[in-house]
Amino acid sequence: MRDRIRAHLETLGKHELEDLGDIFGKSISDRMHKAEMASALSLFLSRNPKKWLCRIPERDIRLLKALCEAGPGEQIEEDYPDYTSAVEYCGLIDVDESDPDVRRLSIDDDVFECVSPWLDMAIKDGETSGRFEFERGILGVVNLYGVLPFDPFVDMMIDLFEDLFGGGTDRFVSMMRSSSVLQLCRYTSEKGADLVVSPLVGDVEALLSFVSEDRNFRKFSNEEILEAGSAAPWFSFRVGTPEGDALSKALIAVGYYPSEVPVLHHDIWYGSQYPDNRAALSDLILSMVDPDREASLAESALAALSDYVNILPNWFLGGMSPKEAGSLQVSYSADPQDGGDESIKRWKMPAPTKSEGYTDLVEKDKALEALSDRMPTGFPFGMAVPHVAPDDPCPCGSGLKYRYCHGKITN
Fold it and tell me: Which residue spans of the chain are classified as CATH 1.10.10?
């Protein structure tokens, strides 16, 4: 086991090995040669399963449990997740990705003998210590906002911790420091900002212009936070709402199996975050039903899909849903005459704000007209840009100050 894992670890970079050491609870100095780092980590994994199993994320422990129940060499199938598990990344499990629709996972005899005696103990420890629940809280917060500065994140986690465990500074600090999930979510931006990031976010830097310490983040209840961080890696949110229930019924009505619905809810939540990618969501319906032959079924299912998307928190809106923010709303139609598969109401403008010293008159001169070519698609010209002060909320509804949002475009 040790030699095989070491060979796999030697294919990784030194920074990746150092991060894996933090996740599994083995401090590895990047001053060592890479081969020495790989050897030290592989030795630790082979000799201390009881220690690292009580540290790694719940998802990894339950994945190892499922593989051990299947037996060494036996494959289990799963949909492709949005991010890699730690036990997969370090080479503890074998992954067959030859099928583009499903991947097959297995463990060999050596890993089975190493981890199987300790798995039930590790699961019980995670459940009784509150570590799993705390981990779900971390994932819930980062999933709801996408990217957060570290200080607001800590404030949210303190509130959740007090609700779950009744407070206790020392215990809170200890759980934060030892959390492997938090290690996975920490991120330092190109400008040196200390952030926490959802594992679902692909391009962190693309989100950062929408994130600042003083922006208004939508508040969520602790129950909502835990909901958003459960069932890793297939996160879902607001499934129990009338809109979520209607979508579940619609997905089954168009031909999906009930067992597929939880993953579809996850895919829709994730896919709805980026407006440019939303058109593909309608394919979940239109690939299952012919709108020409079953127009009524297609229309009702697409309506259920758009209603659900519009109540989901959006990373670009500080956790507000499109319905709450009045922007980034989406509606689907099966009729190409109605504008195709998708119509996005991107910039529904509230009444512009006005500060002292700024005129409320729109002067349509050549300079203003020249700005129209630099506006985003669908941005209504004549929105009275001149009388939005730099520190006023941007009229697009993002929650950012104007100078950090559309003020960048016209600056």
Answer: 130-228
Res. 16 pLDDT band, cuts 50 70 90:
very high
Q: What's the chain's average pLDDT?
A: 85
Closest CA to 103 of 78, 132, 75, 139: 78
- What are the beta bridge partners of residue 330? 344
For the record, the structure tokens of 392 come out as 């006023």
Give the global pTM.
0.81
CB of 136 closer than 8 Å to CB of 229: yes
CA 167 to chain centre: 27
Q: Long-range contacts made by residues 312-315, C-beta under 8 angstroms, separation at least 24?
A: 312/237, 312/238, 312/268, 312/269, 312/272, 313/144, 313/145, 313/218, 313/220, 313/228, 313/237, 314/272, 314/273, 315/145, 315/146, 315/147, 315/198, 315/201, 315/207, 315/210, 315/273
User: What CATH fold (topology level) applies to the domain 130-228?
Assistant: Arc Repressor Mutant, subunit A (1.10.10)
